[in-house]
Amino acid sequence: MASKRALLPLRTFTGPHCSRRPPSLARPTPRALPIRPHAPTTSPLQRRWKSTDHTPSPLPINPTNAKPPTTPSPPPIKPYSYEDILSLTHAPTAHTLLIDVRTPAETARGRIPTAQQLDITGHPDGLFLSEEEFEERFGWPKPGPGVELVFYCKAGVRSRVAARMAREAGWRAGEFGGSWDEWVGRGGRVERG
Asked: Can you tell me the distance from the alpha carbon of 80 to that of 176, in angstroms, rounded to the nearest whole number?
């Protein structure tokens, strides 16, 4: 253990009242740096950059296409009511096709007259198949591009998805929102088989 006498000089020379420090605790004296006026240093690359004008030139605006080009949006899905579907079943047209997107087990209990069956749950790629594959898989010819496809299901959820898919594939699409539940509830004629 160090003696009290060895600590005494340390206390004496390091107190706030003392300006002198022992050599072991002496602070190094700062070196005097020459005072020079501040001159900004630039590299040759910076000088080259500053020597040329880098302000962007305004792009010419062509008044004929001032707005950015947009892709045409597909036509909206047409909503069909019970009365619209009723008239389709009484007088079917070549330009409108009614499609039942329920499963075969659901369509076995009945369907709306003149409707074709396309199980959208079991065959989600059905609308994107070639004509040969479509007819082989579903047993009826694939509708042409000018035909409007009107979809229905049990409650309207699958028919909405099928209508969006048909619109994506290039058809005009419609949807019977009330679907099978409304058709049966309002006493619509049911076709079996």
From this structure: 5
For residue 183, the model assigns a pLDDT of: 95
Residue 101, CA atoms < 13 Å, CB-side half-sphere: 30
Pairing type for strands 172-176 and 148-152 reads: parallel
The rounded distance, in Å, linking the Cα atoms of 122 and 82 is 27
Q: How far apart are CA 71 and CA 172, in angstroms?
A: 17
Kindly report, residue by residue over 161-174, the tens digit of the pLDDT. 999 999 998 899 99
Inter-residue contact 63 to 71 (CB < 8 Å): no
Beta strands (DSSP E) in 27-170 are: 78-80, 96-100, 116-117, 148-152
> What is the distance between the alpha carbons of residues 97 and 112, in angstroms, rounded to a whole number?
12
Nearest to 100 by CA among 187, 158, 170, 141: 158
Residue with tokens 């619209």, as numbered in its chain: 84
Q: What are 100's strand-pairing partners?
A: 117, 152
What's the predicted TM-score (pTM) here?
0.62
Residue 162 CA, chain-centre distance (Å), reads 20
Give how far the C-alpha of residue 3 lies from the chain's centroid of Cα atoms, to the nearest Å.
Answer: 80
- The neighbour count for residue 152, using CB atoms within 10 Å, is 30
